[in-house]
Amino acid sequence: MPQVIEWQNAGSEDIVWRYPKEDLTWGAQLVVQEYQMAVFFRDGKAYDVFGPGRHTLTTLNLPLLTGLLTRLAGFGGNKPFKAAVIYISTRLFAGKWGTRAQTTELAPLQVFGQFWFKIENASLFVNEVVGGQNAYTTAEVNNYLRGFLNEKIIDELSHYDLITVFTRLDETSIIVKNTVIDYFKRVGIEMTDLRFEGIDTTPEYRERLFWLKTGKTAPEDVLRMETVKNAAESLGKSGGGGAALGTGMVLIPQIMTPTGTQAAPAAALVICPKCGNKVPATSKFCPDCGTSLAPPAAGAINCPKCGKSIPANSKFCPECGQQISS
Predict the structure, then answer these.
(1) What's the Cα-to-Cα distance from 4 to each of 14, 83, 95, 137, rounded to whole Å?
(2) In whole angstroms, what is the distance from residue 95 CA to residue 149 CA?
(3) Which residues have C-beta within 8 Å of that of residue 189, sequence separation ≥ 6?
């Protein structure tokens, strides 16, 4: 009874399967179903590949492996030999991906979607993914592909700002897809499609995105608004202490006041008691009527010569030198 090598009951989601025995015999029957490929793998390298059909193993249809065995132990056409048989499904598969990323302004992103692929080159796929990544099961292959996709998407999104990611998502997905297609082709996989199905950020950046998408608010203005909001929230968390409130009241005007030349503060004014005009508070006399604006000092008298207000006990006027009679 010849040995029969066959992947039975392969599910529609199964990508790879390894025949459990590595002790093979010449004349064994290799059964390969439709949408399957069988790859002989030994010492980390893929050798002969078989498509759908029933094959009797001989040195004629295993030329590459036969050459290896001959170099290792001399030709032995009737001796059993060791090799792994890796079955690959050539169906079209759909995989899901999802990851967290950041934009150029470090806005956190959550993105997810699907991708579709199939094994285009079984020998290359076994060398680079199954053997190269030690992924001998469907779950291990899916984990590897998903991890690679996530890594590429994180790297690509880090080159875009928040508004670009949300307004040019189709363009971004195409760039990522093209990048991944080239890599997948190098490991024997054909990626047929890649889609972004969801993208989100935190509530803080959702609000920023709202203002940016209006087209009427510059990014620096949005950032200034957020800083003011954060300052106000910090004040609220401080418990309403007087010192904290004073600090906040100073901080917010400094943030909101546009930079540049600022207007000088207006001088204080007083009203002339005679003509009623408003004059600077630093004036000694009204510039309109000449009335003295100095408040009368207690115990003061007016100089009989110059009329200046001088202390009552003065013997001479400090302004004009007039002798003051006692």
Answers:
(1) 21, 15, 32, 21
(2) 10
(3) 117, 118, 119, 120, 125, 129, 145
Please name every residue paired with 46 in a beta bridge, in sequence order, or none if there are none.
41
Alpha helix positions (H), 159-291: 162-167, 169-186, 203-213, 219-237, 242-256
What percentage of the chain carries pLDDT values higher than 90? 31
* Distance from chain centroid for Cα 266: 49
Q: How many CA atoms lie within 13 A of 79 on its CB side?
A: 10
Indicate whether this model's pTM tops 0.70.
Answer: no
Q: What is the pLDDT of residues 128-165, one digit of tens each?
A: 999 999 999 999 999 999 998 888 888 888 888 888 88
Half-sphere exposure of 73 (CA within 13 A, CB side): 10
Query: How many residues are there in the chain?
Result: 326
Amino acid, res. 97? W
Q: Which amino acid, residue 27? A: G
Cα 262 to the center of its chain, rounded Å: 38
